[in-house]
Here is the input.
Amino acid sequence: MHEKERHRIILSAVQEKPVVTVQEMVELTDSSEATIRRDIAALHVQKRLRRVRGGAEAISPPQFIGLAGRPFSVNETLNAAQKRAIAREAVNLCADGEPIIINGGTTTFQMVHFLTGRRMPIFTNSFPIAEHLLKHSKNTVMLSGGTIYREQNIVLSPFDNDVTRNFYARRMFMGAQGLGPLGLMEGDPLLIQAEQKLIDQADELVVLVDSSKFRMRSSLILCGLSRIATVVTDDGIEDREAKMLETAGVALIVARRQSSDKEESSLQA
Here is the structure.
């Protein structure tokens, strides 16, 4: 990752929470600890953040604490071609008239490009997904209520009596921070709480993850593999990971990238 991109991620991270540790920045940027320490030192000298023991903090501490994890704007640039191919296969599972839930995320966002010609009720907690579908499709769109998390571009509510409980879906489509033998993993307790409510409203759970997510872990389990009906991923999945899904009774769809996906990815980069 280029230095400018690392600096952008680090500065965004310190605006989301009071203190960001070196280890958290290592995971966010996929860089070495030595590289991150150099970045922190450089940004400290530039007075763009404040270096503290074991990490860094913002010069002006955030007034509103966000969710754990990378911002939407950063995530959407990672593995873009794979995400588009995965989204295409996910939309192939949909039938006109069937209600679906699309959880906010950069992989699920790519579904909007293939839903433009469809006609179905769609519930989402994502502003970008709702906005794109309203502008470019005839689908019926319902947006959840709650607090807006700007960095992730999603709306989450911790309350049980929100509109979520009034929507039924044939399938729910969602991404995740990681996927392993224990199930689907996320990085923030509020995300877990809100997403579990959405999962309860759907007959089937379809997980959209690029193959790198099979090697990522988190301390929070959203649900076990037994709750997942289908996983859609790219051709980077390893045999042992495919075997894990097969043993758990999870259907696997491997998305093959098309030339248009690669061109779109290069344009986004």
Observations:
- The two ends are 12 Å apart (CA to CA).
- The CA atoms of residues 17 and 31 lie 20 Å apart.
- The chain is about 35% helix and 20% strand.
- The mean pLDDT is 86.
